[in-house]
Amino acid sequence: MIIKRLLLLQAVLAVGLGSVFLIPQKTTLGPAGIGMTLPDRVGRWTGENVPVSKEELAGLAEDTRFARKWYVNPAGDRIFVSIVLSGADMGNSIHRPERCLVAQGWTVEGSHRVQIPREGQGPLEITALTNVRQGRADEKSPPVTVKNLNYYWFVGSHDVTASHWTRTFIDVRDRLLHGDNQRWAYVTVASYVTDNMQAAGRTQEETTRLVEDFIADIVPRFQPGGADDNSAVERVNTGSVKSDI
Question: What is the 3-state secondary structure (H, E, C) of the chain?
Fold first, then answer.
């Protein structure tokens, strides 16, 4: 009985160690699956470029690329849009969004999935976070609870997901089975709930509708919609797009 167990253990070890040679030794970085030019106008919204901080650049891989804008409409509403495109060292470019928010002093109060309708194709599933922290409307105002709605999703070379953990699983699968390394982009769209910060401010429900309608309008401008809609990807892969900051 002991001999049989030893033989079985040897067989398991041999198979396990031997499988190492079946794993691709070199992975190739896939093309970007997203455009890196944010439009200057989206309907009645006007965009203005946002620079990336030196602290953020210092913590990310050198070949990470960015596109960021604040969008403002005639009513004074503001929506922030950010695309972070990973480079070869994806571990130092893309990470779990909730980690950044906590580091910035936010408390994640809620998280759920949202389906954004898209014309002519299936809905885009994204993650919606509700975040809170203490702040002031201005230096003379008393402290108030600041609430922020943050929507995010990930766009790879040929996969799209609302989940950081699903993206991680896809990466492991692709590297082990195919030797592929998708070039992921992390997209964020966010806005403040302003009903307790300014006169005629928007409630959380109003802000939710505003942001989700905006996402439906802006996504086709940088994220390809299907097999026949590759213009955004081509702008990245031909090298004609630089960091939009």
Answer: CHHHHHHHHHHHHHHHHHHHHHCCCCCEEEEECCCCCCCCEECCEEEEECCCCHHHHHCCCCCCEEEEEEEECCCCCEEEEEEEECCCCHHHCCCCHHHHHHHCCCEEEEEEEEEEEECCEEEEEEEEEEEEEEECCCCCCCCEEEEEEEEEEEECCCCEECCHHHHHHHHHHHHHHCCEEEECEEEEEEEEECCCCCCCCCCHHHHHHHHHHHHHHHHHHHCCCECCECHHHHHHHCCCCCCEC
